[in-house]
Specification:
Chain lengths: ~750, ~80
């Protein structure tokens, strides 16, 4: 077994290296040689290749993402911003919340259960790394057509994986979305969001400073997980017997993670770490180079000390391994004894693998031989930056010019049939089949969960302070106009927060797109980022971080541009939240906000094979007033439910079905009114005695309101169409069990 | 009567939390022999009479599609008298 050391690399400068197989371009390989002044060793090559990959380096997106910094609002609430593992937001009473959303799309396609499970595990560790206790998760999902055979393989596996991992951790799953569209066939989206809470003084950062401080690897042992690509190197270097093929699949162990969470929290409480980083994508390569480059000095790692699950792993593979449930901490020597004692108590393997040095370089040795000698910043942060070509795709103008018509119901029977058809369609149908596999109430602090507009978690048992989280994306609008689509998604997410009675505070995002090498996709991406940055600025909300997932495409077909936007809100007293369901008979129903009858991008159009010709245009100034209207009016609202996917029809049906209380509604231009998804609208119910107040509020915030009906009875009556609650319930709930058993 | 046996194991490089849990429980109960443990599953399939080559081929197919997850597991089909 010939070890490729720095000495060997210097002596044999012309050894051929498989940089292309590792995904590096010729000029990138040349750049590594320039940085090092020699050819990289195979371990260095492995590190650079994975850290300079699209996934880790954001090389195609960086140039656009910097707008999030340039257009950022000044926010006192933001305690830690973009660049750390997750952003941290002040919610008052000395509490800080950290939240982030990440994609695990490709692994979930290969192995749905483990891919989705480790997606949850990864985001939970990101939150933990900030010093916070994870308190809730959410999962926005996208699949191909609901009745496609591959969806039957993916959806149950992915849902079981999310439930399996999250439930074992004892984390409530409080929301998310499930959307079907043929462009996601072969490319499901599995995004995972986690929320964590801590006190202000408990915030931890990923940094390594203080010469002589120790680098400790703790958690699970390192195995050959997720190093599929790097096996090229191993097979070049070694030819002897070892597990035939290194898997791209990582297998998670939620019980190990649960123990790791409790162990870390005890370590944090005892104030034993200087910096901490979780091991996720790119494993130890990422953790060591990021910790070192965020610190003041260099770092020395003795790689042979890493505890291995599979002793046949080569140094390159140890550096690349994505084995789950591992953390890396920087600990002062005088505290290491206590640190180790806590790890022992929790039965967590912990090993000192190196120390912080006063140099400027990251040195990694294997049995005394120097195999990595690099400036850490060049690995972690100074990766290539691409300004990829951008071109507005032709389809946009073609659609804009196209005539767009869908059949609309007129007679009462037709209206009834149309409503039943809409609410039974997979995108609108009841998702209990999925959400009942998740534990929504574990920990006992869940106030609202799916299908409510946002998930609501109590933070303090005495003061009843709580936080609300919502995730939203309307990919069809983003397809029609990615700039407006991003703005609308943020506006919708804020509206969902305000609908439950919480005040929007901060934004995170997960931007899922096709190949950045396609100028059309890159244009969609650039427009999305511009839209999101502009919208956040106009709404006065900080963007705390995010994640980009490219290459979501099958052959030449990219997924619909899918920017999933998460918003965090704060509610002073969770007991005062507004639920979505109509709570009683005899209430007045008001539609808040104006509608324009546009059916572009609506579910109704989709059901007729149409996408429409123009996205709605976001009116953020109005959305801001609407949020204030909702927050001010919260005491008089008996229920409130956002109008979004499926239009007013879906909103009314969901509000009625929640508590099985009927309603009588009168609408002009009934079909358009029911099926248009015009943004900026909310359905609320109030007591008759609150009429003056709602009229005054509407005047104060200049929001149009329309009294459209009253609640009560056992039917939903819309003009002359009468549908019994039983019929509604049957249509709404039958779809998922029928599709997925 | 002969049975067709399908044994499914996680591939050697795949993490096996169950096996690990067993391995760490053994010494707690005083068993000190194990360096490591990996846990799999075994299917016993009865057919009428002795298995035919055609049936074995069918079982092979079932093992690949239903009884195992070829992404993370391997299987062996054999006959047990």
């Amino acid at each position: 077994m010939a070890l490729d050391t720095v000495t060997t690399a210097t002596q044999n400068p012309d050894t051929k290296q498989p940089f292309a197989e590792l995904g590096l371009k010729e000029d990138e390989y040349a750049r590594i040689k320039t940085i090092l002044g020699r050819r990289p060793t195979s371990s260095e090559l492995a590190m650079y290749s994975v850290m300079w990959s699209e996934h880790c380096s954001y090389k195609s997106s960086k140039i656009h993402l910097k707008q999030f910094g340039e257009k950022a609002v000044k926010s006192d609430a933001l305690l830690v911003g973009i660049g750390e593992n997750a952003g941290v937001v002040d919610i008052g009473q000395n509490y800080a919340i950290t939240f982030k959303i990440e994609s695990h799309n490709h692994p979930s396609f290969i192995e749905p259960y483990q891919g989705a499970a480790t997606g949850v595990g990864g985001i939970v560790r990101d939150i933990l790394t900030m010093g916070a206790r994870p308190i809730a998760v959410m999962d926005p999902l996208r699949f191909g057509l609901a009745d496609a055979p591959d969806t039957r393989r993916l959806l149950p596996g992915i849902v079981a994986g999310i439930g399996g991992y999250g439930n074992c951790l004892g984390l409530p799953n409080i929301g998310g979305e499930i959307v079907f569209d043929e462009t996601y066939a072969g490319n499901p989206l599995v995004n995972a969001l986690c929320v964590g809470v801590m006190k202000h003084e408990d915030i931890k950062l990923a940094t390594a400073h203080g010469t002589g401080n120790l680098v400790v690897l703790f958690g699970a042992k390192t195995g050959g997980d997720g190093i599929g690509g790097v096996s090229v190197l191993a097979s070049e270097t070694f030819s002897d017997a070892k597990p035939t093929k290194r898997p791209a699949v990582q297998v998670g162990d939620p019980f190990a993670e649960k123990v790791l969470i409790e162990c870390c929290l005890e370590i944090f409480k005892a104030d034993l770490v200087i910096g901490i980083q979780d091991l996720g994508g790119a494993g130890l390569s990422c953790a060591t180079s990021e910790l070192a480059s965020a610190g003041s000095g260099g770092m020395q790692i003795n790689l042979e000390k890493v505890p291995l699950r599979d002793p046949s792993l080569s140094p390159e593979e140890i550096l690349m391994s994505e084995s789950q449930e591992r953390m890396c901490a920087i600990v002062a020597p005088e505290k290491i004894k206590t640190f180790m004692a806590i790890c022992k108590k929790w039965d967590v393997t912990a090993t000192v693998i190196g120390e912080v040095t006063d140099g400027e370089r990251l040195h990694i040795t294997f049995n005394g031989e120097l195999i990595v000698d690099v400036p850490p910043r060049t690995v972690a942060h100074d990766g290539p930056v691409y300004n990829r070509p951008i071109k507005k795709p032709d389809y946009i103008d073609q659609l804009t010019k196209s005539k767009f018509e869908v059949p609309l119901p007129t007679a009462p029977d037709e209206v009834k049939a149309a409503i039943l058809k809409l609410i039974a369609s997979p995108n609108i149908a009841d998702k209990s089949w999925v959400t009942s596999q998740y534990d929504k109430y574990v920990q006992g602090n869940t106030v609202l969960a799916q299908p409510e507009d946002s998930g609501l978690i109590r933070i303090d048992e005495q003061t009843h302070l709580g936080v609300a989280v919502s995730t939203d994306a309307n990919a069809r609008w983003s397809y029609l106009d990615p700039y407006e689509g991003a703005k609308l998604a943020l506006a919708e997410s804020c509206r969902n927060i305000a609908t439950t009675g919480a005040k929007p505070l901060a934004v995170t995002n997960c931007l899922n797109f096709g190949s950045p090498e396609d100028p059309g996709v890159m244009w969609q991406f650039a427009e999305t980022v511009r839209g999101l940055a502009d919208a956040a600025l106009e709404l006065g909300l900080p963007i705390t971080g995010g994640n980009v997932s490219f290459y979501n495409q099958t052959g030449a077909v990219a997924i619909l541009p899918t920017p999933v936007i998460g918003v965090l809100g704060v509610i002073q007293d969770v007991r005062k939240r507004t639920p979505m369901g109509i709570p009683a008979a005899g209430l007045d129903l008001y539609l808040i906000g104006k509608y324009n009858g546009n059916l572009s991008g609506s579910e109704w159009a989709y059901l007729h094979g149409e996408i429409g010709n123009a996205s709605p245009v976001a009116d953020l100034e109005m959305e801001k007033r609407l949020v204030n209207f909702l927050l001010d009016g919260q005491p008089i609202f008996e229920s409130a439910h956002d109008v979004s996917n499926g239009g007013l029809a879906a909103t009314i049906v969901e509000s009625v079905l929640k508590n099985k209380i009927g309603a009588r509604i009168e609408l002009n231009d009934v079909a358009n009114a029911l099926f248009s998804e015009t943004p900026g609208r909310v359905l609320v119910s109030i007591k008759d005695s609150a009429t003056n107040e709602i009229v005054n509020l509407a005047g104060k915030y200049q929001i149009p309101i329309y009294k459209i009906g009253t609640t009560g009875g056992t039917d939903l009556e819309i003009n002359l169409a009468v549908i019994s609650i039983e019929e509604l319930s049957k249509a709404h709930t039958e779809t998922f069990p029928k599709l997925f058993g | 009567m002969a049975k067709i046996i399908v044994e499914v194991m996680l591939k050697p490089e795949i993490l096996d939390p169950q096996g690990q849990a067993v391995a760490s429980a053994l010494p707690r109960l005083g068993f000190t022999f194990a360096k490591s443990v990996r846990q799999g599953k075994r299917f016993e399939i009865e057919v009428t009479g002795d298995p035919t080559p055609a049936q074995l081929a069918e079982v092979e197919k079932a093992a690949e599609t239903l009884l195992s997850n070829p992404v993370i597991e391997t299987y062996v089909v054999k006959i047990e008298k």
